[in-house]
């Protein structure tokens, strides 16, 4: 039996799949699109399921990576095959443990919110298991998601805030990188050089937060010499409402995830 089955290999399911494949995990995948599935045929550690029921029969941990509007349909389809020893992993925002338990009663379920940097083993995932998972099973699930990045156990009440930030954040960072590159291009830099220089600067800045444990404001002050260039840029960002826009954007995603 495969340890992990992934239903739906689109953006998120595909990112998780590639993270696991490159870590030599044996997986099984299913998808509505035969074309997408054919891309996985060349991997020796990937089995292509005949359908979602076949996938559930052949795996212990099933990651449901279809769009939230298909959750009910797919759970209804697989629920007869879903024996007590299997674990359903939901990655859809808005699907609370209660909602999932109503769809699949008396079964082991964990809500997990990963993000697409899973593809380069740098996902930030939060896990909230239901009461039926044993400590050992929680560790097993954690180990799987550790193969694609960092993992934190998080109480359910913090999930909307987590998915509103970490689930969506990569899109905001890419938009920031694109806009910063436009600024560099405006000043004569070649576009592809700009992407590389700016992305490395974002990566380095994030590492500074993680590794120095200094307050982000202190790190900002370290870049901001009196009368220098950085403070000119910060003044413009404050005037244009940079912080307020980010807070409002995150608040909007959190509200949306609460009401899905
Ligand atoms: N994208 C992210 O950054 C992100 C982050 C965190 C969580 N999530 C969650 O991850 C889930 C998937 O999102 P996504 O962005 O990866 O969506 P997506 O790119 O549309 O991927 C969904 C995949 O599921 C396939 N599919 C549709 N119906 C199916 C069925 N009945 N059985 C098996 N496969 C089926 C789709 O195939 P077709 O295209 O052929 O229909 C598609 O390949 C969502 O619940 C989303 O909320 C996404």
Q: Determine and state the CATH class of the largest domain.
A: Alpha Beta
State the share of residues found in helices, binned by percent.
Answer: 40-55%
> What ligands does this structure carry?
NADP nicotinamide-adenine-dinucleotide phosphate
Radius of gyration: 21 Å
Query: How would you describe the shape?
Result: elongated
What share of the residues does DSSP label as strand, in percent? 15-25%
> How many DSSP H or I helices?
12
Give an overview in words.
It is a single chain. This protein is of the alpha/beta class and 260 residues long. It folds into two domains: 2-155, NAD(P)-binding Rossmann-like Domain (Rossmann fold, 3-Layer(aba) Sandwich), CATH 3.40.50.720; 169-258, ProC C-terminal domain-like (ProC C-terminal domain-like fold). Helix content is 52%, strand content 16%. It has helices spanning 11-22, 34-38, 52-57, 71-78, 97-103, 135-146, 159-167, 169-186, 191-212, 216-223, 229-239, 242-258, and strands at 2-7, 27-30, 46-48, 59-64, 87-90, 108-113, 123-129, 149-153. Helix 2 links the parallel strand 2 (27-30) and strand 3 (46-48). Helix 7 (159-167) packs across helix 12 (242-258). The longest helix has 22 residues, at 191-212. The two termini are 34 Å apart. The model has no long low-confidence stretch (mean pLDDT 95). It binds NADP nicotinamide-adenine-dinucleotide phosphate (NAP). NADP nicotinamide-adenine-dinucleotide phosphate (NAP) is lined by residues 7-13, 30-33, 36, 52, 65-68, 70, 74, 91-93, 113-116, 167.
């Amino acid at each position: 039996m495969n340890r992990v089955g992934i239903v739906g290999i689109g953006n998120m399911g595909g990112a998780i799949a590639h993270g696991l494949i490159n870590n030599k995990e044996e997986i099984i995948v299913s998808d509505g699109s035969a074309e997408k599935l054919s891309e996985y045929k060349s991997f020796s550690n990937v089995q292509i399921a005949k359908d979602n029921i076949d996938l559930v029969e052949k795996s212990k941990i099933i990651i449901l990576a279809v769009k939230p509007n298909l959750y009910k349909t797919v759970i209804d389809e697989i629920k007869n095959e879903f024996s007590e020893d299997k674990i359903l992993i939901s990655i859809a925002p808005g699907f609370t443990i209660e909602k999932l338990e109503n769809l699949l009663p008396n079964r082991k379920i964990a809500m997990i919110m990963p993000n697409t940097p899973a593809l380069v083993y740098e996902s930030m995932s939060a896990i909230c298991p239901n009461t039926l998972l044993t400590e050992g099973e929680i560790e097993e699930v954690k180990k799987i998601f550790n193969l694609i990045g960092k993992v934190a156990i998080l109480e359910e009440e913090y999930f909307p805030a987590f998915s509103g930030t970490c689930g969506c954040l990569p899109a905001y960072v890419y938009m920031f990188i694109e806009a910063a590159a436009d600024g560099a291009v405006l000043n004569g830099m070649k576009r592809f050089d700009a992407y590389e220089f700016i992305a490395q600067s974002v990566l380095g800045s994030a590492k500074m937060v993680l590794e120095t444990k200094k307050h982000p404001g202190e790190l900002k002050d370290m870049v901001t010499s009196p009368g220098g260039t950085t403070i000119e840029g910060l003044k413009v960002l404050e005037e244009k409402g940079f912080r307020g826009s980010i807070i409002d954007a995150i608040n909007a995603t959190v509200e949306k995830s609460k009401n899905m």
